[in-house]
Design a protein that fits this description.
The protein has eleven helices and twelve strands. The protein has 344 residues and is of the alpha/beta class. Bound molecules: 5'-O-[(R)-(carboxyoxy)(hydroxy)phosphoryl]adenosine (KG4) and zinc ion.
Length: 344
């Protein structure tokens, strides 16, 4: 597709049909990671820099938006500079600059998006605004030859969706959570049993040491491809209380919770892909880093499906997925005046 540069209004071809190598620099700052990346032709990562704020937010037990925005301001120029250094490229080598527009924390998004817009303006290159959720899906194009159509399970701190990806730009959400997102459920249950922030990866680790059938926890009963995780969270709360201050069998609780979540997710994903008749399934989002969910999804290979999951570092927030999304033109925003938004 063709995009315009901002000052001289030259037309620049971007994407798989452009006929030459594209180098897209992208910035991601929607939550607590300040990230900058350069990706060649949507699939080959030339530079991937992530400044994590986990240490800052750990003591509060969660992300404090105002503090996160300030940290983005401190890190943004550094990550951009490091991406140029790691790639050996100069601004004039960049085909277009991309930035996450939303959903996310508004103050945080403003920092990265304005940096991306400024780079595009200063270097007279096209600007491409990207939806964070589409970017998570596009992490699956990195280091692979994957092409739509496929069925996707998007699981992050804020979202849980089954998405029918018909083409690079045509996607339909078939179902989503009616209450908590999977990552949110992980983080809340982790807090209940006394694990520090961020709870998801810690819970995952302990779960691997426990018995997944120690406790029978309830699967959320919702129609179609929708999900519900708040009942499961309450069941864990009740279970924790039943120990009445006695030592908790933490590993078994984690393992039983993880078993319940992973089997629910995979059951619905399988139903969707069977119904649509696709041969490919992918997972995306921070929770796609989860060991048990990955294991169960990859078991679908035994049933003849091609399964793809991004490498761990491209599951959680990063800018390479944003660059890939910009290249494949996955519902992008090309107007330099595009405003950040907090909710999908
Ligand atoms: O996609 P992401 O980095 O940020 C959002 O866009 O929300 O996802 C963050 C979420 C957090 O809830 C975190 O606890 C969860 O992903 N997470 C995990 C694992 N690694 C990250 N949850 C379960 N198991 C993991 N290994
Ligand atoms: Zn994310």
């Amino acid at each position: 597709m063709e995009k315009k540069t901002l000052f001289s209004e030259k037309t620049v071809k971007i994407g798989p049909d452009s006929g030459y190598d594209n180098y897209i620099m992208a910035i991601e700052s929607s939550c607590d990671e300040t990230a900058c990346a350069i990706v060649k032709n949507g699939r080959e990562v030339i530079a991937n820099i992530v400044a994590s704020q986990i240490k800052t937010h750990e003591k509060f037990g969660g992300v404090i938006p105002e503090i996160a925005a300030r940290e983005h301001l401190d890190s943004i120029n550094i990550v951009v500079q490091e991406a140029f250094e790691q790639s050996g490229l100069k601004p004039e080598d960049i085909t277009a600059f991309a930035g996450t527009v939303g959903p996310g924390l508004v103050g945080c998004l403003l920092v990265g998006l304005n940096a991306a817009k400024t780079l595009a303006l200063v270097h007279d290159k096209p600007f491409i605004g990207v939806n964070h959720l589409n970017a998570h899906l596009c992490a699956n194009y990195i280091d692979t030859d994957l092409k739509p159509p496929f069925m996707a399970l998007l699981i992050s701190g804020g979202h849980t969706q089954i998405i029918d990806v018909e083409s690079y730009s045509k996607q339909t959400i078939l179902g989503e959570t009616i209450d908590d997102a999977v990552g949110e459920a992980y983080d809340k249950v982790a807090r209940l049993i006394g694990l520090p922030y961020p709870g998801g990866p810690r819970l995952d680790k302990l779960a691997q040491e426990g018995n997944p059938h120690a406790f029978d926890l309830p699967e959320g009963k919702v129609d179609g491809y929708n999900f519900s995780f708040s009942g499961l969270k309450t069941a864990v709360l009740r279970l924790v209380k039943s120990f009445d201050g006695k030592e908790l069998p933490v590993n078994d609780i984690c393992s039983s919770f993880q078993e319940c979540v992973s089997s629910t997710l995979v059951k619905k994903l399988k139903k969707a892909v069977e119904e649509r008749g696709y041969k490919q399934v992918v997972i995306a989002g921070g929770v796609a880093a989860n060991s048990e969910i990955r294991k169960k999804i990859f078991n679908l290979e035994n049933e003849g499906y091609r399964v793809n999951a991004p490498a761990m570092k491209y599951c959680t927030d990063n800018a390479s997925m944003v660059a890939s999304c910009a290249y494949f033109n996955t519902n992008t925003f090309d107007d330099i005046d595009v405003e950040v938004f907090s909710r999908a």
